[in-house]
Amino acid sequence: MSAAIRPPEAATPIFRNGFATTALALGIVGIGFGLSVLFGLLATIFGALAVLFGVIGFVRARKGRATDGGMAAIGVIAGLIAVLIGIGVMVGLPDQPDSLSSIGLLG
């Protein structure tokens, strides 16, 4: 009995999507900054970057040059939430430090 010789199977290429990972991480960090009272601007910046990277990652996934299109979409959603929270914090927070004590943020 002789063993049949098979040609080597083609390896499936693994495309990773660094843009999707970056978008998700920036979105989560942006939401975290948005939930802390004094970092509305950082939440807005991180959220906007998350949306940008998420859109790039989603387009790359749709073209077949990368994977994780779902992660890119979640990164865009997290980025939008971070932007909304950041803008809400910046608009809702009073400008004068003495008025912070009237809303209970400072002693």
UniProtKB/TrEMBL annotation:
Source organism of the structure: Kibdelosporangium philippinense
Residue stretches spanning the membrane: 14-33, 39-59, 71-93
Keywords, sorted A to Z: Membrane, Transmembrane, Transmembrane helix
Protein name, UniProt field: DUF4190 domain-containing protein
